Here is the input.
Amino acid sequence: MTTSRLLLCLLPLLIGLLAPLASQAQATSAPAPLPSADQYSAKGADTCLGCHDDESKTYSASALFKTKHAQRGDKRSPFGAGGLQCESCHGPGALHARTKKAEHINTYKTDSSVPLAQRNQVCLSCHQGSTRNAWHAGAHERAELACSDCHKVHQQHGDPVLSKASQTQTCLSCHKNQRADFHKPSAHPVLQGKMACSDCHNAHGSSAPAMLVKATLNKTCHSCHADKRGPLLWEHAPVVENCASCHTPHGSVRAAMLTKTPPLLCQQCHSPANHPSLARTASSLPGGNAGGAIFLVAGSCSNCHTQVHGSNHPSGAKLLR
Ligand code: HEC
Ligand code: HEC
Ligand code: HEC
Ligand code: HEC
Ligand code: HEC
Ligand code: HEC
Ligand code: HEC
Ligand code: HEC
Ligand code: HEC
Ligand code: HEC
Here is the structure.
């Protein structure tokens, strides 16, 4: 091994794999001897490919060479000049190359002998960037997800979770309730590939509730539905407060992804005291039985109060225009 290679060993692996591994080895009586830093294979990827190329009966790693991780021109990449190549992610592999035993290498399988936090730390040692700063505050870290539960780095045609069209399937493989929601008659066009979960959520965690991409739920909605932001001359209090008081974010059996059907939707908050609130009756509507009944036939307050999101009309105080 050349000196430059050795120097690079120290960088990602001392922070990542090695240090925690060493302490773990002391704390518990680990079943298998774990490789140490001087146990990198002599020829790097060439050693590995001796058994893990297309011809081999074990796993073929060849597709990796079509991905960004194998860019030789990028010195931050595992395959950049002096990089540790396969072993920057899989750890020192000389021992494994001799024994062919799975427990002598860092695998990303769930039965890996390397603890989860350390497997993730290998990736984070190169990828602790802006979008992942909140990883340690997110529900996915708390739920003990591995980076490799979502990311597939050995795929020739790219990592499916990075593309809008295929990301959804990765997310929905765990989130069954959301799968059902997006199949409801009125839903955000996520299954159609027109938008992705990541338009609203940061899968790496965020300081917002439900790991939303923006600080609040409303700000997340406004990023696409800017017309609902206001400020308006006549605001409707719940719209300013929380879109989710009337809409579900994913999908609903009711039109416009509403949480309830009007007039019930409105009557959750508006009492019959001053104005019509008895569902589908109209005796106290302006216009009386005759006028009002016609409008409530479809059961909707928004037949008259068309501007439920607020109004800019000088006389729109009652959200009628
Ligand atoms: C002499 C052949 C040989 C060489 C060289 C070799 N491997 Fe392996 N590797 C194997 C075999 C055989 C298995 C399957 C072991 C098993 O399933 O128990 C394996 C399994 C693996 C696994 C997966 C373990 C699992 O849980 O299925 C990884 C990761 C791996 N090798 C990476 C590497 C890396 C990185 C290198 C280079 C440093 C390398 N291998 C070099 C033969 C080799
Ligand atoms: C030695 C540093 C290094 C390590 C370790 C590393 N990566 Fe990367 N990764 C890179 C570089 C460099 C790029 C290319 C970045 C670019 O082109 O902007 C990259 C790109 C990516 C991308 C984007 C790919 C694309 O096609 O846009 C993903 C996703 C990724 N890495 C995930 C991971 C995961 C998961 C791990 C751990 C299993 C990992 N990386 C380990 C350096 C590393
Ligand atoms: C729950 C699924 C999920 C997990 C777990 C996950 N990611 Fe991601 N990752 C995504 C999605 C979705 C994208 C693309 C959209 C985005 O950037 O938010 C992405 C994008 C990336 C990118 C490329 C774009 C960029 O921001 O540079 C890198 C690198 C990356 N993730 C690294 C990691 C690392 C490291 C871990 C583990 C600490 C990890 N991811 C865990 C889903 C996940
Ligand atoms: C950027 C980090 C990274 C690099 C570089 C890398 N791998 Fe992997 N490898 C992974 C991850 C993550 C998995 C889990 C499956 C996936 O993501 O597709 C994996 C899976 C494997 C497996 C199957 C066993 C398992 O752990 O699931 C083998 C064998 C393997 N890699 C060998 C290699 C070889 C040989 C090289 C070099 C040519 C290499 N890897 C380079 C991250 C990496
Ligand atoms: C390997 C399984 C798995 C995958 C894949 C996965 N998640 Fe999760 N996710 C979980 C678990 C477990 C939790 C925590 C328990 C819960 O809230 O259901 C969670 C929680 C969440 C939460 C709730 C956060 C909170 O603070 O309440 C959101 C949002 C989320 N995931 C979005 C996504 C998105 C978007 C993707 C795809 C990019 C994804 N998940 C992929 C398992 C997964
Ligand atoms: C239009 C934006 C948007 C899209 C797209 C979106 N979500 Fe959400 N999601 C939200 C909002 C907003 C919440 C918070 C709901 C609340 O707190 O009332 C949420 C909550 C969640 C939760 C927490 C549990 C819950 O239902 O409250 C999970 C898990 C989740 N989303 C997963 C997903 C997955 C998986 C996808 C993609 C298939 C996805 N989301 C797409 C906006 C979105
Ligand atoms: C990434 C962009 C984006 C974000 C963020 C977003 N939406 Fe949407 N929304 C859309 C698209 C695209 C449609 C479909 C428009 C169409 O079909 O013409 C839509 C449609 C809707 C509809 C009408 C559905 C119907 O069946 O008529 C409602 C209601 C809605 N969104 C509410 C919300 C709420 C509430 C939020 C915040 C939780 C939100 N949107 C965040 C893009 C977005
Ligand atoms: C007081 C209940 C209520 C609140 C709060 C609310 N909406 Fe609506 N929204 C409705 C109703 C009712 C409809 C159906 C409109 C109709 O029947 O014409 C609707 C329709 C929509 C539509 C589809 C039709 C259109 O006008 O573009 C979008 C998009 C939408 N709302 C986004 C939002 C966003 C974004 C927020 C938060 C800023 C929000 N809504 C808050 C009641 C509400
Ligand atoms: C989450 C509770 C909530 C829901 C649901 C709700 N509203 Fe409101 N609405 C309010 C509040 C709070 C006000 C402000 C009352 C005030 O300023 O005295 C308001 C104001 C109004 C006003 C103006 C009243 C005035 O005196 O200026 C109208 C009209 C109205 N809402 C109609 C509707 C209709 C139609 C629906 C159903 C589509 C609806 N609201 C759903 C809470 C709600
Ligand atoms: C036939 C048309 C019509 C229908 C249907 C209708 N409203 Fe009204 N509403 C009005 C008019 C007109 C006013 C203004 C009355 C005034 O200025 O004195 C009003 C005023 C209001 C106000 C303001 C409070 C007040 O007494 O001034 C609220 C709240 C309200 N409506 C809620 C509702 C709800 C909830 C429904 C559905 C159950 C509904 N409206 C159905 C026409 C209608």
Remarks:
- The two ends are 77 Å apart (CA to CA).
- The pocket of heme C (ligand 4) is lined by residues 45, 48-49, 52, 59, 61, 64, 69, 78, 85-86, 88-90, 107-109, 148, 152-154 (CB under 6 Å).
- Residues 227-303 form one domain.
